[in-house]
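Lab channel / #folding
Pinned by the channel admin:
"Please post every new chain as: sequence first, then the structure tokens as a reply. Keep commentary short and put observations after the output so the thread stays searchable."

First post following the new format, from NK:
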Amino acid sequence: MFSKLYRRFNQRRLNDPNYAFLFEPAPMNEVVCIDCETDSLNPNKAQLLSLGAVRVQGNRILISQKLELFVKPATRIDTVSIKVHGLRHCDVANGLEPEEAVLALLDFIGSRQLVGYYLEFDVAIINKYLKSILGITLPNAQLEVSGLYYQYKLKKLQQDMLSLPQIDLRFDTIMRDLGLPIQGRHNAFNDALMTALMYVKLKNISSFCSQATSQYH
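Reply from TO:
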């Protein structure tokens, strides 16, 4: 109930009718996996440095429908953050303005559900810019892939009658446990692509486990 009310309130705040498509029904069986690189883990202070996104249709990761954007920061990138994402100031100095990049992302994702790892952070970064541009926050449905993995591991451990240890939700740990290839150095697009691989694998595993369980009840 509250989510519906907030959605209506959010839609009324939209100050550009050209982006009304964000509130339209999402295409069937399609999601977009996204990732952001920033110079800080504090969303209130972080500058957006790059955006990566890829569409997933059913079980198909549409590599031909990808988005990879670099964003020009207002200030120099801190050397500590360079060690994390590898983006130097010279790599992004000719990038888009943050507002341009965010609007390009909106055109790419449309009204599709968003999937991500630590998605709450990415959405907070995007919303920081989006509020000043269009007066709204992202209305898209959101799915946290680490939550999907947690539910899968929890169900598997319960089925195996094992005690419930702490479940490791680190990105590379999830990739290795699912038998998925790590795509070289972490950057926004590679992380979006690996998130898409996680999502498709977990969706199919969960579907198979549900079908197998129902056969024994």
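NK: Residues 188-214 form the longest helix (27 residues).
TO: also worth noting, The chain is about 45% helix and 15% strand.
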